[in-house]
Amino acid sequence: MKASSARIFSLLIIGTLLVTAGLAAFAAHMRAPAKALIDSASRIRSTADAEHQIAVWRARADRSFWHEGAAQGGDYTYDVQVENGLLPRLHIAAPTMVGMTIGMHNRELRYVILVMFTGREPSTTSGVWVQEWFGTDAVGVLHVNDKDKPLKATVDFRFDIPEAQRSNAFSLNATCFVEIGGCKTAEEILPGVWQLTALARQHP
User: Fold this and answer.
1) What is the pLDDT of residue 153?
2) What is the span of the domain harbouring residue 122?
3) Is residue 10 part of a domain?
4) How far apart, in whole angstroms, are the C-alpha atoms of residue 85 and residue 87?
5) Is 95 part of a structural domain of the chain?
6) What pTM did the predictor assign?
7) Is residue 27 assigned to a domain?
8) The total number of structural domains that make up the chain
9) 3-state helix, strand, coil in the chain (%, to 5)
10) What pLDDT does residue 73 have?
11) Angle at Cα 36 formed by Cα 34 and Cα 38, nearest 5°?
12) What does the pLDDT read at residue 61?
């Protein structure tokens, strides 16, 4: 009887470990496209970079992709979005999306937007919007809008800010994509977001 109980106990432990490992592998698989999209946005420094990333994501199957163009004026936007679809239905994580928008004017890069939003209800959804402006007429240093603090933040900056500031601004936390219960604040989505403006003033 003791041997039988020990065997059942061992099987339960093994089963638990296998389920845990399976869930970890599945979470890593779900997180990968979110991390890839975040990295893609941070790699865009020129029109050529933007065109390359558009081609990369147009060819991928694990995303939503669409583009819109104005009939006149040469304005185009390209949008890529990934979601953590199955995880919310399994009640493992909150519904979460990561999106990238590339804006072009007359075939020249004008801006890149990177966003992440997570939550089940509009009133409690947290999110971060990051926008980088390109072109010789782009103006302004890094700025953080904290109107909806602590849930949401908007970060915008021009293309030629110091590299450390730019890297920090694009450092969205891809783990929010698979976080149990989801990330609850803008600070969790973009660690250090509320300090970005102060750091920009210290290192113009």
Assistant:
1) 97
2) 32-202
3) no
4) 6
5) yes
6) 0.84
7) no
8) 1
9) 45, 25, 30
10) 59
11) 70
12) 84
Instruction: Give residues with Cβ within 8 angstroms of 20, minimum separation 6.
Output: none
Closest CA to 80 of 105, 95, 108, 61: 61
Tokens of 142: 């890094």
Distance between start and end Cα atoms, the chain: 73
pLDDT for 203 equals 55
Which pLDDT score, from 0 to 100, does residue 36 have? Answer: 94
Measured CA to CA, the distance from residue 196 to residue 150 in angstroms comes to 15
Instruction: Write the single-letter amino acid at 198.
Output: A
131, with CB counted inside 10 A (0-12, 13-18, 19+), is middle
Mean pLDDT by 10 residues, the chain (204 residues): 60 57 60 93 96 93 82 79 82 89 92 95 94 81 93 95 94 90 92 84 58
The pLDDT of residue 198: 75
> Where are the strands (E) in the chain, listed by range?
64-69, 75-83, 96-105, 108-118, 126-133, 143-145, 152-158
Residue 165 included in any domain = yes
